[in-house]
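Hi R.,

Here's the chain you asked about this morning:
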Amino acid sequence: MANEMTDIRFDLEGRFVPEAYAFPLWSEVTRILPELEDFELAGILPLKGAASSEGMLLPRRTKLALRIPASFVQNALELTGKTLNIEGNPLHVGTGTLRKLEAYPTLRSQFVASEKIETDFLEEVEGILEKLEISCKWICGRRQTLKSGETIISGYSLAVHDLKPPASIRLQQVGLGNYRRFGCGIFVPHKTIAGLD
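And the predicted structure, written out as C-alpha cells:
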C-alpha cells in the first residue's frame, strides 16, 4: 500500500549528542530531506546511548534509524555521506540499510507523548487501540519529559504484549500519539516486559 511504513538504518559515527538531541536531530535530518516534513507518521527512532558529563555517549555501533513511508526510501538514502551538526556535535551518516517491519508479540515505545495523568492516558490508549482493532495487554512506565529550550513534551513509556501478527504490524505502522519526529510513539520489538521505567 502507498502509505506502508518501513525502517531504514544508517551507520553513524559520532561521540556525543546533547541530552535533548531529538529536536536538533530532526532539524538536521530535514535540512537534508525537507520533504520528510510532509509525512505525519515519519519519525526518528530514539538513539541508544549512555548518560555522561558531556551529554549522551554514543556507542560505536549506534544507528540512525528512520521510520518512513516505503515510497520515500530512495530519497532518504541522500543522507548517506552527510554530516549532521547536533549543537556542535558532528554525526557522520554512513551506509543505509532497509529493514522492513516484522510482527513481534511484544512491542515497546520509549516515549508516548501525552499531557494526561496516567489513568487518563491509559483510557486514551485503550480507546485508540480499540479504533485500530488491536487487542492486546499493556504496561505503562513512569511519566517523563523531553525538553528543549521552552519546549516541553510529557509522556510515558509503553509496552504492549500478546499482539497477533496483523496487530503488531499495524501498531508499528501508525504508532501512538504525536511528535513522531522526536521519536515519540514509535514502537519497536521488545524481548521482555519486565523492568520498564
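The mean pLDDT is 92.

Let me know if you need anything else.
M.
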